[in-house]
Amino acid sequence: MSEQISVLVVDDEPIIRAGLSAILDSQADITVAGTANDGEEAVEVCARLRPDVLLMDIRMPRRNGLWALAELGRRGLLGPGRSRVLMLTTFDLDEYVDDALAAGASGFLLKNSSYEELTGAVRAAAAGHSALSPAVTQRIIEGHLSGRRQPSDQELARLRDLTEREVDVLRLIRDGLSNAEIADRLVVSLHTVKTHVSRVLTKTGCQSRAQAAVLARNTLS
To answer: Could you tell me which residue ranges the Response regulatory domain spans (predicted)?
Structure first.
């Protein structure tokens, strides 16, 4: 990631695109590299511009945000050293949260989020952190505590190479703890936690902490 955070704004409504772009461009450390009006255009523009972060609506005509997210992953455009995706929507629905995070989104923001939440989420995503609104984080935790489905064989296989300590770290990621909080909980250094988190993401094939949290919710008690 460069010192200046480049963002691609994706939304089918011109007024929304313009408003989001104006907010982000007003920040000294953020620049809007481009815009797109649907998922298909978003993938093509992302491949050309390689922005640090895509701020992308879910509901769009022709190709929606979930399709674009999957296609970005298929083309190898997501993850560490590549682009991160923040999903933006009006609707706080479980199916969208699960689908977006499981596909590798770094965060999920509601359109009524504050300016501070929006810009903070962009910075967090660019730095490789999860960027979830408090309401969405709570829904993930509650989804784990009530009604967790049976994990698939493929999901369980992704945990096979984790050490016992890495499983502990994954469980704490699921519970929404930051690296500093994990370090305090496990009584280890922050550097050690960062190493564990990096190994967890690599071994499980997760492209973000948020994706790891969904995997952990579905597989760990």
So the answer is: 6-126
| Predicted model pTM | 0.70
Phi, psi of 104 (to 5 degrees): 110, 10
> How are strands ordered across the β-sheet holding 84-89?
30-36, 5-10, 53-57, 84-89, 107-110, 131-132
Q: How many CB atoms lie within 10 A of CB 196?
A: 24
Contacts of 192 (CB under 8 A, 6+ apart): 183
List pLDDT tens digits, range 121-146: 999 889 887 776 656 665 665 554 45
- Using CA atoms, how far residue 86 sits from 58, 119, 128, 171, 183, in Å, is 10, 11, 11, 23, 26
Express each pLDDT in 62-87 by its tens digit: 899 999 999 999 999 988 789 999 99
